[in-house]
Amino acid sequence: MQDPNCIFCKIVAGDIPSQKVHEDGEVLAFRDIRPLAPVHVLIVPKKHVATLNDLTAAEDDLVGAMVRTAAKVAKERGHDGPGYRTVFNCNREAGQSVFHIHLHVLGGRSLGWPPG
Ligand code: 5GP
Ligand code: ZN
Fold first, then answer.
1. I want to staple 18 with a disulfide (CB 3.0 to 4.6 A). Which of 7, 30, 70, 82 is the partner?
2. Could you give the angle at the alpha carbon of 99 between the alpha carbons of 114 and 28, nearest 5°?
3. d(C-alpha 6, C-alpha 2), whole Å
4. Which pLDDT tens digits describe the chain residue by residue (116 residues)?
């Protein structure tokens, strides 16, 4: 495990159970434990990266894989046509509460804009 104090590293390692919806060599997607929409999935890299501020060019392919996985998850659930939202929260004022980057995928209802 890359950060023994990180809850998403524990989920990636299988030490904390999750409802997985996609897994490959680079990323894991699982249902958010407190869903804010009918579909609320989190896409996480298996590699520990704390915030968007910590990304380098070395992670460009990884972030691309996360975004494409989000689109795949949405499409599999029929949200590609009606629409869905993807969100990275970065640091506390944006509401980041788990410091292992994750892409929220929200769908299945109308989503207000701007966010609070
Ligand atoms: P953030 O607030 O950092 O953008 O999003 C963190 C998300 O992780 C929250 O929506 C929260 O509900 C979710 N979360 C926190 N702990 C767990 C957990 O143990 N399992 C799952 N599936 N989701 C979690
Ligand atoms: Zn982590």
1. 30
2. 90
3. 8
4. 689 999 999 999 999 999 999 999 999 999 999 999 999 999 999 999 999 999 999 999 999 999 999 999 999 999 999 999 999 999 999 999 999 999 999 999 999 999 98
The residue type found at 45 is: P
The reply to whether ligand 1 has any atom less than 6 angstroms from the CB of 69 is no
In the beta sheet, which residues pair with residue 39? 107
pTM, full prediction? 0.98
| H runs (alpha helix) in 1-116 | 7-13, 60-76
Residue 33: partners with Cβ closer than 8 Å, 6 or more residues away: none
Confirm or reject: Cβ of 50 under 6 Å from ligand 1: no
Question: Which ligand 1 atom lies nearest to the CA of residue 19?
Answer: 22
Query: pLDDT tens across 12-33, in order?
Result: 999 999 999 999 999 999 999 9
